[in-house]
Design goal:
Elements lengths: L2 H23 L4 H19 L12 H4 L1 E4 L4 H9 L4 H7 L3 E7 L2 E6 L6 E5 L16 H22 L2
Antiparallel strand pairs: 1-2, 2-3, 3-4
Length: about 160
Amino acid sequence: APAGAAMRTEISTAAEFVTRLLRAAGGIGEEQLRCFRECLQEALREHYKHHWFPLVPSRGSGYRCIRINHKMDPLIGKAAGMIGLSHERLFQLLPSELTLWVDPFEVSYRIGEDGSICVLYESPQPGGKPTKPLESRTSCKEEWRTGRSSPSKNYNMMTVSS
């Protein structure tokens, strides 16, 4: 299969994730979001074309990595420019520290420099090599859930008793 077809799931997963972050921030129309997602997918496809090695998934990982840390990732910046979003606006809408790894068979991300790595997409590699175990598979989602509501929940349970 040509690299383009092989990368499709990984790239659409990554583009959809960034689009979801923008949607969650609010204030951007669905039509703009759709255009952003398509532009980003196109930019990623172009960028990764000669840097996709399914037999050695980690090769070129740094090149494919999408990063926001006080600098806007140029590919995200380019797609946002297509719908009239400035870099300043993007910094308000997206996490200020975001790393997204788009590798063959796995797409994962980290928010914050010390955040846990969360897997967005994973598929077994052909040839049956087991993918690397991730200690933080559930912890990242749990952190989000418990981090927000843990103290008040226990408190409510104590005060309810009549």
